[in-house]
Design goal:
Blueprint (H helix, E strand, L loop, with lengths): L4 E4 L9 H9 L2 E4 L3 E5 L2 H5 L10 E4 L2 H14 L8 E4 L2 H6 L11 E3 L5 H9 L6 E6 L7 H5 L4 E11 L4 H5 L3 E4 L2 H10 L9 E5 L1 H9 L6 E3 L7 H12 L2
Parallel strand pairs: 1-2, 1-9, 4-5, 4-7, 5-6, 7-8, 9-10, 10-11
Antiparallel strand pairs: 3-8
Helix pairs in contact: 1-10, 8-9
Length: about 250
């Protein structure tokens, strides 16, 4: 089946994104719209977890989203942030993002050079006398067992949640293909269109967790990424369109 229109459940990318190369090469219309949005917990909801931020000497960040919601909620809670607080980040990109909120001092900021959580656990092990707090979403995908294996004690606290964005059934069905990247995105599809039937509509699903969520709903996955041949969604779409649109 030839695909003329694709709804991609992500924000619109920068101008030089390979997504736009697909539009030009295959004359396919791409629309970008998030299926989920992220919101902070209320101060009342957070306090119900009985977490007191000043009790901790180190914060663990695995995304820029967690950074934003940590500092936003701390401000709303009027929770003091000690100048001696240490920060442990999944990547240097996240570490540098901290400059949005604090004065960047390398002696207080640590990060995984590999961008992997097991490597971050190794970095934290060298500071295992610290009391670690890790801000997470209500549904998170981090494998916390790596900290246990590294003998690092980490307390998690929910700072933010993912909720479904609004999508009309007519909006969903007007596209030849949907691209979904997370289990929450799959759930959002059914929250908005409870009686969704795939029919001839193609589905491109990124990542094993989202693919498992789609299959659990009885959906047919027409494009899977990442793969060894197609490590990104644009690459997987290019491969599909080469076979079906030319």
């Amino acid at each position: 089946m030839k695909v003329n229109s694709i709804l991609i459940s992500q924000p619109a990318p920068p101008e030089k994104s390979p997504y736009y190369d697909l539009e030009r090469k295959f004359e396919v219309k791409l629309t970008f719209k998030q299926f989920i949005r992220v919101e902070s917990l209320s101060t009342k909801e957070f306090r119900a977890q009985k977490i007191f931020v000043p009790d901790f000497s180190a914060i663990v960040f695995t995304s820029r989203t967690s950074v934003d919601h940590f500092f936003t909620l701390c401000k709303e809670l009027r929770a003091p942030i000690n100048d001696e607080l240490q920060y442990f980040c999944l990547s240097e990109t996240i570490a540098l993002y901290l400059q949005k909120y604090i004065t960047y001092r390398k002696r207080k900021i640590h990060f995984s050079k590999l961008g992997q959580i097991d490597d971050l656990a190794t970095v934290m092990k060298k500071h295992n006398t610290e009391k670690f707090l890790m801000p997470v979403a209500d549904v998170h995908k981090e494998d916390l067992s790596v900290f246990q294996k590294a003998k690092v004690s980490v307390t998690t606290a929910v700072f933010y949640r993912t909720v479904s964005a609004e999508l009309s059934p007519a909006e969903v069905k007007q596209y030849d293909m949907l691209c979904i990247f997370t289990p929450a995105g799959v759930q959002s599809l059914f929250n908005n269109v409870p009686d969704y039937e795939q029919g001839d509509q193609q589905l491109a699903i990124f990542g094993p967790s989202a693919q498992a969520a789609a299959e659990a709903k009885g959906l047919r996955i027409d494009v899977k990424a990442p793969t060894e041949e197609c490590p990104s969604m644009p690459a997987a779409l290019r491969d599909f369109l080469l076979k079906n649109n030319e």
